[in-house]
Structures are given as C-alpha cells and as structure tokens.
Amino acid sequence: MAELSYIGKSIPRVDGPEKVTGRAMFTLDLQLPKMLHGRLLGSPLPHARIKNIDTSRAEKLPGVKRILTYKDIPEGVEWGVVPVCYDQRPLASDKVRHVGDSVAAVIATSEDIAVEALDLIDVDYEELPAVFDPREAMEEGAPVIHDRYPNNIAFTKHMEFGDVDRMFDEAHHVSELATASSRQMHGSLEAHVSIAEWSRKGDVTVYNSSQCPSLSSQYFAKLLKIPEAQIRVITNYVGGGFGGKATSKFNIDFLSIIAAKMLDRPVKFYYTREEEFLLGTHRTKQFHVWRIATDKDGMLLARDTKMVVENGGYSDYGPAVGGITAHMGGSIYNYKAYRHHADVVCTNVPPGGAMRGIGNAGYAFGSELAMEKHAEEIGMDPAEFRIKNFVKKGDTTIIGAKITSCGVSECVEEAVKRVPWREKQPSSNGKRRGYGLAAAVHFTGARAMGPETAGAFIKMNKDGTVQLLSGTIEMGNGSDTTLAQICAEAIGVRVEDVRIINGDTAVNPYGWGVRGSRTTTIDGEATRLASVQARNMLFKGAAELLECDPNDLDAREGKIFVTSSPERQVTHSEAYMKIYEKEGSEAVYTASSYDSPSETPDPVTGYGNWSAAYAYGAKVAEVEVDTETGAFEVLRVISTNDCGTIVNPAGAQGQLDGGAVMGVGYAMMEDFEVEDGMPVNPNWLDYKLPTTQDLPELEAVLIETENPSGPFGAKGLGEMAQLGTSAAIGNAIYDAVGVRITSLPITPEKVLTALNEKNGE
Amino acid sequence: MAFRHLPANSADETLAALKEHGEDGKVFAGGVALSILMKSRVYEPEVLIDIAGAGDLDFIEGTENGGLRIGAKTVHRKIETSPLVQERFPLLAEIFHNVATIRIRNQGTVGGNLCFAEPASDPPGAFLALEARMNTKKADGSERVIPAAEFWTGYYECALDEDELLCSIEVDPLPDGFRTACTRFTTRSKEDKPCVSVSTAVLTEEDGKTAKEVRIGLGGVEAVFRRLTAVEEGLRGKELNQENIDAVLADTLDDLEPLTDIRASSDYRRQVTPVLVRRTVLKALGAS
Questions:
Q1: Number of Cβ atoms within 10 Å of the Cβ of A320
Q2: Which of A103, A642, A711, B252 could cross-link with A528 by S-S, CB 3.0 to 4.6 Å?
Q3: CA nearest to B287, candidates B210, B200, B212
Q4: What domain count does chain B have?
C-alpha cells in the first residue's frame, strides 16, 4: 500500500481544543429547565434485613417532591452482566448487602434539600452476620448473602483442556505460587450521572454517562417495558470511564427514569465521590494459586490456576472476570494441558466490576510473578523462558484462540534490550536497583456476551464535508480522532472535513460502546466499510467528469484523481453534484454493519476463538529499593506493544503512557480498603492515585504487526497499555533485593517485612 | 447541613464572634480541613466565622532580631515563596513547599494547619525544631505566648481555649552555626500526607561533627507532635555519625507510641522512624 494520508500520522485530537479550554460538555454539567435533584440513602451496615422504611418525616420537608423505596420499582427490574447473575436492583428491598447499598432515593427541588431529607428517613434494620473475605464466604456455614447463591458462589468458570494431572506427574519441574490483587478505582473525573426527561408524547430521553448508550437503551426498554423506539439515550463526552461506566445501566438510570415519569419533570441523579467508591464499582480483587509444569528444556507442559474472585454484594462484571481470565491465560503461552478454575464469590463489600483490562490486570500480576518464579527455579533467564513459550502467529492455542498476528517476542526483546538486563547492579547507600519484566495479552473485543458488532452511517455533504455517525462514544480514549482518520483516509477527504456525531441512540447506529479495546478496530472497520461505500458512489460521478473508469480513480485529502495521471482531478463536492443533480438523483448516505470474525465460545468447555485479534505487550520496570525502609522508587517503565497498525502514534503513546501510570498506581498505592465491611478510604484524601511527582520515566515502543481483520491492520490497545506494569515492578523488586511481594499494592511495609524475614529477623 | 455564615474582617471581630457563639462557632480560614469534615458530615458547626477578610492576620514580617512573624491566616504558598522566609528560614520554605499541592497551598493557612493538629502533617515538626512561639488572643483582650513544645496537646488537639484565636507564629533566628534539614517520608504517593516527618536543627562544636545541641521535631508518627528530647539529650557531646546516632536512638526511642493508619502500621513506623531521624540529623550535618 502506498503511503497513507492519515493512518499512521499523529493527527491532533479533534476533541482537544474543546477539552483543554474547558468548553467541552459533559453530562454532569447539564442542567435542564425545571429539573429536580435526586439523592440516594445508603446503608450504614454491611448486611442487614430491612424491617421498615419510614419516610413520613422526610416527606414533610419543604421542597421534597417524592421519596422512592423498593415499592416504587416495577417487578423485574433486575440486571447484571452475565445473565445468570442478574441480581442488582435500583433500591434494596429485603436486605442491604454492603455499606452504601441504596435503600431509598429522595427527589427534591435542590440538592441541599435532598441531602437534608436523607437524615429524616428512618430505616429499621435487623443486623445480620456478614462475611467479607470471599474465601471464607465459600465455606460451610458462612452467612448467605443472596438466597440464589447458597455457597455465596455467584458464578464458577471451569475450563480444562488436555491431561493436566498427567502433565504435572511427568513434569521435570513444578512450581507453585499464591498471589492476590487489590481493589483499584477508575478515578474518573466525571461521576456517574443520569438525567431523565419524559416528553408530552410519552417518550423518554436519558442523558447519562454510559460507555455504551445503545446497551443502556436496550436494557431500559426490556426492563421497564418501554418500546425501544420511545427511548433516546444521549451521552455527551464521558469524563473518564475506564470500564466503570460499561455496565450501561446504573441504578440511578432507573431511578431517574421512574422518578421523572412520576413527577413529570426532569430528574437528575449523580454519584457523589463517596458513592463512586460504594456504588461505582472497582477493579475486582482476586486471589490466585498458580501451578506451572515444564519439561527438561523449559517448555511449558501445563498450568493449573485456581482463582477466587471477590464479587462484592452484587454481580456487576465480577462473574465475567472468571471466564475472561481463563481466555487470556490461554492466549499468550502454549501449553499441552490447561486448567482454570475460578469461583466468583459474594461478600458484604461494595461490588467489583470492570476496569481497563477487565480481570486481566490482577490476573497478569499473579501469573507473571509465577512465570518469573518458575524461570528462576529452573535456572533460566525469565525473558528467554517466556519467549520460548509464547504463542506465535498461525497458532490455535489450547483454549481455541486463533492467533492471526503476534509480536509478543519482539515486545520482550525490545524491552529488555533497553536496560542492563540480568546484570548484577551495584548497591549504594543501602539502595539497590533492579529490573523486572512482564508480558501480557488482551483481546480486541470479546464475543463474551453476544455478537461483536458495530455500525456506521456516513452522511456526505454537497460541499464535500462528511458527517460520520458512529455507534461508539468518546470517553477520552481518542476514538473521535482515530475514526475521523479512518473515515478521511477511506473517502479521501481532508480529516478536518470529517465531523463525528455520536452518543445519541435515536440518531446513531447500534453499537457495543467503548469497551474491550474494540473501538478503533471494530467501530473503525464499520467506519471504513461505510466510507468505502461513500467513496465508490463519489467515484461514479468523478469518473463521468474525468471520463475514465471508476476503478482507475484514487482519492486523497479532498481530491479525487486518476491514479495514473493525478493532475486529472475533481473535488468530492464536484463528484457529488454530478450524481446528485440529475434525474434519478443519488444522495450519498451510506450505512454499514460489521461483525468481527470471532466465535462464541463453546458454552460447556469454553473453547473458541472469542476475539478477532489479540494485542500483546511487555513492560520492563526499573526500581530502586531502600533496604532500610522498604521504600522503593519506580525509576522507569518501558512499554513495548504490538497493537497492529498504529492509526495515530501520538494517541497510542498517550494510551501507553497513561496505562503505565495507572499500572504504577495499581502496583504501589491504589487500594480501596474495606475493613469489616466499612469503607476505609472512599475519597481522594485517603485513597491515593499517582501524581506527576510519582511518575517514572516513561518509554513507549510501538511494534507494528498487521491484524488481517482490522481497518488498515489495526488492533486493540487501550487496555493492553496498563497490563503487566504491576508484575514488572514486583519482579524488579525481586531482582533488586530478592523478596517477592505477592499481593497488591506493593507497599514499603510489605517490602521491609519481607526483607526482615529474609534476613532472619 | 445548615450553618450560619458570619464574616469577620479582623482579629477583633473574630474574637467578638467567638465570644458570642461559644462552642457553636468555628473559625473558618482556608477551609481545607474544615470543609472536608463538613462535607462528610463528621462535623456540623452552627456558625462559621469566616476570616477571609481578616487582613490583619495575613502577613509575613521580619522581626528586628532577624526572626520572623507570620500571621495565622497566611496561606502555605505565600510562606513557601516568601523571599524573607527563604532567606531567614530555608527549612520553613522547604517544609511549606512540600505540603500537598499548589492548589491546596494557595488555600490552606498556616494557622489552620497548626490548630487542626492533624498528626500527619509537616509544619508542626519544623516549628518545634525552630522553637517557635504561638501568639494568641482571647475575647477578653488577654494575650498568651505558647511555646511550640506546649501547643499540641493531643490527637487533633491544641492548647487553644474555645474563645482563643491564634494570631501569629513567631520564630527567633537560630544561633550562629545551626544547620537544619527535614525529611518527609511517604509510603504511597509523594503527594500523600507524611507517614513520618522529621525536622532537625543541629549545632556542632567547632570540629563540625560533635553535637553541641540537636533539636528534633517529629510528626506523622504519634498522636501528638513533639520534640524527641531524650534523643536530643543522648546525642549531646557525641560525634554525629551513623553508628553513634543509631546507638543513641536504640536507647532513647523506647517511649515512641506510633499510630497505625492507612499509611502504615505502628510497627512499621517504629522500625523506620529511627532510620529517618538518623538520616535527617546527618543531612543537617551535611547542609551548608
């Protein structure tokens, strides 16, 4: 392919000027005329039976318009992610299952009045025994949180291929390691928000901050029994999602819709920062036991993974984590036998959910620590051990993943060559340096909960500009820019002549929203297909004007020209007018529907190629450990990534840098702590995110491969960007001082305690 | 959350308001700490005495003896960037530079910080090492001078009476030859509040290494800010090197009662405090 105009170029973010000047509109900013304000009453107890809710005092407060309890919620408004675990309700009815569980909602003329009214609601609770550790919750006799899950196990994923036990019996070496991850918050600046307004016609418009407006609309229709044509979900720019807004149906969505109908006025709900912690979900906490078997040459024979995932009080994306991790583990290394057993267990803590690299971040922390330990035990360079065992292009892996592009070995080679790998580092002043590696894989859209489809509508304008109506939304990931690049490239217009219209389900095509690192690839391919149709229509007009065959034409940056003699050219506008201003006029409106070439995994075994492409990457971290205090600094993080063809290098680097920072936070400091069910740090004062002062030197290396199913060869990146950082840091600490910290976050205290133990104190 | 907002445009107006409202009134300066408590509904004052307009509490001035007087309403950022502070007390400039973020330093006041008395804080340790004095006034017109060593009395508690206002903090110049240093040790983000905060002022004999006087202010570790007087005494006359300092610390820090909080356990603080005290003393020794 000749050099492209826009693909592979660092086109500045199309949403950049609006955002850096503070003019961008987020749903949280929106105020509608006559709008009322809703507030939630949360449970102060982790587990209790609701005996009575008395709202009479609160109702008397001037300005209070309505108080909702479970009695106002229609039958059947229950949701989740994995269909067998639909256990969420807008308001608790029989029981509360975690601190912050919503019990009632006040709708008032102002936020302050609503807050004041919360204090006047009297809830009579009967406190119940509670359980906070998922491993204890599975035990006989533990308090039961949902009657439908007798052992508190909401979901089990067991995937097993090959003769695992025989491989372990025949192995030359077997290693074992137990690891645990933590609860990381998305930390989005914009809180979850939902504003509902009913029209005179009886249609409802919901302005929310969902990553998946189409899914919102679909669920509202199904659960509230409203024809989907009468629902319009509008999402402005989303002020950060990172998976936290991917559930696509929040309790405040249902509450705002129900309340707005009752009161015939718009109603706005949003989560306070504390509610973001209690209701907005977090990266699910996991406990793992890894067993790895290799032969005498260091080739992997088998892996046996046992996982317990903390679901929390309700099922959000927790159950999905069980299967996602099984697939990811089976898509990076080749095994002769593979067993994955994950129990997703309810506890009386706020629910876990999806977060950038869903399930895979905690999983990759543990699995890459386990790989490192195994390499050490068999006396092999951990980079070499990994490279020997990585999947390769053309492989169908043990879980059925078809690897059509793969640059993971190059990622590792490129990353380790930038540091003094395996060289003993001199120590100075009680400080020791070390280098650690981790590799990871993530999918590009996963066929886990239905078809991986996307759509795009193109409206070509007579002046040669384009409106692209996409099924995705911009949540800061840069998709408005990459989609504009793909559209401009495919139609041959200037990128500044493309306007993206998205986030309105009444206007845009159906889409799966922003999740699963799918947007550039899958929405991008839908965009490319609709764009090519538009271009082909324009080429007919251009061919008539230029008196040539349409097949002899090409288009670039606003000109349609004869490939062999580019000086023979017309504009897109001229070409359009040629086919438009005639009898039998043709208008250039095109539409595409695209399903990525992935397979639905076998419902019993889980076998199948559930993603159309797999993105790979490696991280190398350089750390310096203070042996007297256990404190450590991450000096450098090198991210090498194979994400197919790079559509926008600056955007890709932004994802990789941002991902590495999120990984550093996950490794070192981020943990939403819950003690006996009580949130310890549900605010930015006590929960710490890394700031510019904590940043290591960041290096991003893009290794291009070609994904045959992606637009121009692209594949996913957003989630991959942060995977492996925490394990690389953990392995670097081991390299520096010889202690392996097996739980997140890695704190100075854990390092010092381990050093003391190692030194026999 | 209903409260009355009462502007007070001078120290005297503030004192009058304190007298009138007694325990229902609370002085609101930068509001950094108070607004968090109010938003989380931990604390719900009836009357907020807003001293935003009390210009007579907002100043940094040099004293005749070469010291410094800082009005209680002065924001952190102003202290950090004051040429006078930088010249006379580089320790204070450094300490204030490292508190939280610029946004917070532009809002939070020194008086608010000292009176809130949150253990995880840096400025009190520095004022202890500098032997600062707190100038206060009461509604009845009486004034007090409270030495820093007596100002912090408990967990989030200071020596002020209900109707008493901290007006200024005064620091005398360190005698010739004193060298200062501080260590702000965090366990999570570098912008976190300190897990351990040590400020020292060290004076040596002419040999440059034998301790004549060592002052150590400790924050972040215990419920109450304090000078490590036993350590200071133990170091007097000793040559300040790692071995000697560690030996003194091993003998004199038995009474340490570290807190457990989200940043670290008591046990961890007990282990790292001596290391950080030693490093800070040696850092001061190496300072110019």
A1: 26
A2: A711
A3: B200
A4: 3
Residue A155 backbone phi and psi in degrees, to 5: -160, 140
Residue B187 touches partner A, C-beta closer than 8 Å: yes
B157 membership: H or E segment, kind and range:
strand B157-158
Tens-place pLDDT, residues A465-488: 999 999 999 999 999 999 999 999
Token look-up 């290799």 returns A294
CATH number at residue B276: 3.30.390.50
Laid out side by side, the sheet with A553-556 consists of A553-556, A559-562, A565-571
By CB atoms closer than 10 A (0-12, 13-18, 19+), residue A476 is buried
How many A-B residue pairs are in contact by the CB < 8 A criterion?
Answer: 57
- Shared-domain flag, residues A223 and A290: no
> Is A184 contained in some domain?
no
Q: Is B172 exposed, middle or buried (0-12, 13-18, 19+ CB in 10 A)?
A: middle
The pLDDT of residue A551 is: 97
In a domain, A182, yes or no: no
Structure confidence by residue, pLDDT tens digits, B176-218: 999 999 999 999 999 999 999 999 999 999 999 999 999 999 9
Rounded distance between C-alpha atoms, residue A133 and residue A201, angstroms: 50
pLDDT above 50 (res A165): yes
Report residue A232 as tokens. Answer: 């319009």
Check whether residue A620 and residue A751 sit in a common domain. Answer: yes
Confidence of residue B1 (pLDDT cuts 50, 70, 90): low
Q: Using CB atoms, which residue from B2, B36, B187 is nearest to A749?
A: B187
Among B139, B171, B203, give the residue marking a domain's end: B171
Structural domain count of chain A: 3
Same domain as B106, residue B80? yes
Catalytic machinery residues of A: 719
CA distance A517 to A523: 10
The mean per-residue pLDDT over the stretch A372-383 comes to 98
Are residues B161 and B132 part of one domain? yes
pLDDT tens per residue across span A422-439: 998 888 888 999 999 999
- Residue A155 is assigned to a structural domain of this protein: no
Asked if B69 and B145 sit in the same domain, the reply is: yes
Query: Which residues of chain A approach chain B closer than 8 Å at the C-beta?
Result: 112, 115-116, 274, 628-631, 668-669, 673, 680-681, 683, 685-686, 688-691, 693-694, 747-749, 752-753
Chain B interface, best mutation among A629, A675, A686, A689, by max B CB count within 10 A: A629
Domain span at residue B136? 55-171
Residue with tokens 């229609």: A74
B101 part of contact set with chain A, CB < 8 Å: yes
Establish if A175 belongs to a structural domain: no
Structure tokens at A712: 């121009």
Question: What DSSP state is assigned to residue A520?
Answer: I
Which of A669, A680, A748 has the CB atom closest to B189's CB atom?
A669
Would you say the C-alpha torsion A550, A554, A556, A559 has a positive or negative sign? negative
Range of the domain at A46: 31-128+189-240+245-279
Distance of CA A746 to the CA centre of its chain: 23
pLDDT tens by residue, B66-99:
999 999 999 999 999 999 999 999 999 999 999 9
> How does pLDDT run across A42-93, given as a tens digit for each residue?
999 999 999 999 999 999 999 999 999 999 999 999 999 998 999 999 999 9
Per CB-CB distance under 8 Å, the chain B contacts of A116 are 1-2
A745, pLDDT greater than 60: yes
Per the CB < 8 A criterion, the answer to whether A595 and A453 are in contact is yes
R_g (Cα) of chain B, nearest Å: 19
Question: In terms of domains, do A432 and A548 share one?
Answer: no
Beta-carbon contacts of residue A113 (< 8 Å; ≥ 6 apart): A37, A61, A62, A63, A64
**Would the CB atoms of B189 and A115 count as touching at under 8 Å?**
no
